[in-house]
Specification:
By secondary structure, this protein is mainly β. It contains 5 helices and 27 strands.
């Protein structure tokens, strides 16, 4: 060793050998240290060799007492390695000849856990690589299913691949979900697909069932009557429980009642407009046609509107006032009274005579029932007009539901109705003829 430099003594130089960094040889009376991997012949002018000591011209031996031989170096490393001490990185590097990375035949680049040195013949160096065992190698490890019951999911090992069976839901009662975010396989019960129809067995009484598979057995198990007894009971129309009218009460609806205050009601189906009358001859209540004297009011209907409607000059326009009635008899007469309020002039000329036309229109039959008009004398200069009303009558052609509406037409300009929240109304009466 000279100046703190360790060399590995290689003896006399041989032209057939490859020398590596820090190997030293003796050649032609001088000693040299390889500064990189080389096959170059050592000389003072050589690029791959560092002259350690120059020999004499007469070939006398060179004093190498200042240098370690290979055996001495190995002994030094062994002694140092056997000491019970902690080494710094610098000390370790010095022990392995100035760090393994500095060897010219080793090319280490960012090694990672588990890598090994592999010789790369293309660059003639040892490089760090991840060892791959390939498809046919690998360890002899395998897997197995344990336990005394159930179905195992391990299938077999093919090469280095451990193969497992997939989990599959046998029906829509179970769901299996790959929960990748939590690295889980979630198995759940689909409650919406579980019904009593697809559940086997029977449910005990303590669990809310009957423990039986038939209706009659279920009734018996629950201590109830048999199905035949229930059928007989429900088919009995003779008041088997002897319920009295006072027990039922006069506020309880009795559907399909066959008596009123103990008097029989016939089972004849009534027709439209008939009323229930007592027949002393049959001593029963019977549906009969309504009979009234002339002029008697049969029914009255009423409707109103405060919806603002603007009517322009021209054709008749519905102002939102309508009424519906279902006549009792086609022999009767309909009488009506219409009052229109909130009449406001929107635009138009100051006519000396201003006419408003009005109609009662039957929307069911698409026909005009009544038509009239009103003339306002003098100049039409006021913004608001007094209420307008008209009355009339109409014949009845059907006992079906009829709908009537009020329509208005203006002579010129525009007129607004039900202005300022005013309420217009219509009253219709059916009167017996």
């Amino acid at each position: 060793m000279s100046d703190g430099l360790s060399v590995i003594w290689g003896g006399d130089y041989s032209p057939t050998k490859t020398y590596y960094k820090n190997q030293a040889v003796f050649h032609e009376g001088s000693s040299y240290r390889a500064i990189r991997t080389t096959t170059e012949e050592p000389s003072p002018e050589a690029l791959d060799w560092d002259l350690l000591a120059s020999g004499s011209d007469n070939g006398e031996p060179i004093d190498l007492s200042d240098y370690y031989t290979k055996t001495q170096t190995d002994t030094l490393l062994n002694n140092k390695a056997n000491q019970s001490t902690t080494y710094t990185k610098t000390e370790v590097d010095n022990l392995i000849l100035d760090n393994l990375v500095e060897l010219d035949d080793v090319a280490i680049s960012s090694p990672s856990d588990g890598q090994a040195l592999v010789y790369d013949s293309s660059i003639s160096k040892w490089t760090n690589e991840t060892i791959s065992t390939g498809g046919g190698g690998g360890e002899v490890n395998t897997a197995s299913n344990v336990g005394t019951a159930g179905v195992g999911i391990y299938k077999q090992k093919t090469g280095v691949n451990l193969e497992f069976k997939k989990l599959n839901a046998g029906s829509n009662k179970i769901t299996i979900t790959d929960d990748t975010s939590n690295s889980e396989v979630d198995i759940n019960v689909s409650e919406s697909n579980l019904t009593l129809d697809n559940l086997g067995g029977t449910l005990s009484i303590s669990k809310g069932g009957t423990g039986s598979t038939s209706a009659s057995a279920a009734l018996s198990a629950l201590g109830g009557a048999s199905s035949s007894s229930l059928s007989s009971h429900t088919g009995n129309t003779s008041n088997p429980h002897s319920v009295t009218a006072s027990q039922v009460g006069n506020t309880t609806s009795q559907w399909n009642a066959n008596k009123l205050q103990g008097v029989d009601v016939v089972n004849t189906a009534p027709t439209n407009g008939q009323v229930l009358t007592y027949n002393s001859t049959t001593t029963k209540w019977e549906p009969t046609a309504f009979s009234s004297s002339q002029g008697k009011v049969v029914q009255v209907v009423y409707s109103s509107s405060n919806t603002i409607t603007t009517v322009a000059a021209g054709s008749f326009t519905n102002i939102g006032l309508s009424v519906q009635i279902t006549p009792v008899s086609t022999s009767n007469i309909l009488y009506f009274t219409v009052v229109i309020q909130g009449i406001e002039k929107v635009s138009g000329t100051a006519d000396t005579t201003y006419i408003i036309g009005a109609q009662l229109y039957n929307t069911t039959t698409s026909s005009t029932v009544y038509s009239t008009g009103s003339s306002y004398g003098g100049r039409f200069t006021a913004q608001y007009l007094p209420p307008y009303s008209f009355q009339g009558q109409a014949s009845i052609t059907t006992t079906g539901a009829l709908t009537f509406n009020v329509r208005i037409a203006a002579q010129s300009g525009s007129i607004r109705f039900q202005s300022n929240n005013a309420i217009s109304n219509i009253i219709m009466m059916e009167v017996a003829s």
